[in-house]
Each structure stands twice: as C-alpha cells, then as structure tokens.
Amino acid sequence: MRRKQEWARNLEARETLCARAESLADSTDWKTTAAEIKKLQIDWKAVGPVRPNRSEAVWQRFRAACDRFFERYKRRDQIERELAAAAREAICRDLEALLPAPADAAAASPSGPPPAGELVSGIDSAWTRWQKSPPLPREHAALLTERFNRALATIIAAHPDAVKGTPFDTGANRLRMEDLCARLERLLAGPGAAVDQSLSPGHPPRDDVA
After folding, report:
1. Contact (Cβ atoms closer than 8 angstroms) between residue 27 and residue 66
2. What is the pTM of this model?
3. 134-172 per-position pLDDT tens digit
4. Taking the CB of residue 30, how many other CB atoms lie within 10 A of it?
C-alpha cells in the first residue's frame, strides 16, 4: 500500500515536470529556457520511481518536450529570422489595409475612407511596430522594407489633409529639413560669413561655375 502511494506521488511530480517542460517547448527565450529545462531534467532524476506500467509513457512525454525545445534551440537563428520576417509581413498587411480602394470598389462601398484620426492612428501604430521589429539581414529585409515604404507613401499621398500637422506630413517635414540645412550652412560658414546660396535646398544649380 505504501509503495502504491509513493508511486502515485512520484507520478504526480513527474507529470508536473512534464507539463512545465511542455509549456517551455516552444519558447524563444533561448538562454533562460535552456537553463530551466536543464534544471527540470535534474529534478526529474531526483524523483523516485513510478508504477512500472506508467514509467515509460511519462518518460517519453517528458523527453519529447525537452527534445522539442533543444531541437529548436539548434535552429534558433533561423527561427528568429522567420519570426522577424513574419512580424514585418503582418505590419505590411495592416498598413496595406489602409490603402485607398480602387475606384470601382470605392464606388460600391458605402463606408468610404476611414476617418482621419483612425487613419493616422493606423499609420502611427504600423510605424511604431516597424521601428521596434527585430532586425533582419539586409537581403531578407529589402523587399519587406520596399513594400512597407510603398504602402506608406501611397496612403500619405492619397490623404494629405488627414496627415497634415502629424509626423507623417511630408510637406512640413521637407520644410523642417530645409530649415535645418540652412542653419547648418550658416554655422559652417562662421560668424559674419556669407552663405553660398547655391548650396541651399531647393535652390537651382548654378550654371556659371567654371
């Protein structure tokens, strides 16, 4: 009787370890999870025996969870790239959902374009998520970056009034950049020096330079 009770307690302990290992099997917190699973493996060895007809099944369950994580751990760089690419693709899809509908679809839709506030909020959300996304190798990032920038430029061009006064107001941004360039030119020229206006943004190039 005592042995059966011990087997039952040990089985419960091992099933708890199984459940924890299974919860970690798909983790991408690589370093922390690897350390925790190794500790679970040590804890497993410290648990006493279970009923013989249950021993193999519970061991295979625990081993499968541990093996799954460590097999993924070996491919962690590839997995990180896949996750980063998937995250950026999702952002592109969300941004593309804000693109103006084709003329025939727009005519058939009673809702019309989204309100300005909703549009700017959607752009801002996509932009913030994009900036915080994990980096990708250049060869993988190029197409997604082009896709994101194309969608963003199309939305802004289609709704200039909606983005006016926001960080996505390209006209205002251009003016600020021109002002910063002019200030920099004055600083580089030094006190009292005349600034070569041909270097100013938007100034037509000189054609009288030898």
Report:
1. no
2. 0.65
3. 888 888 889 999 999 999 999 988 888 888 888 787 665
4. 15
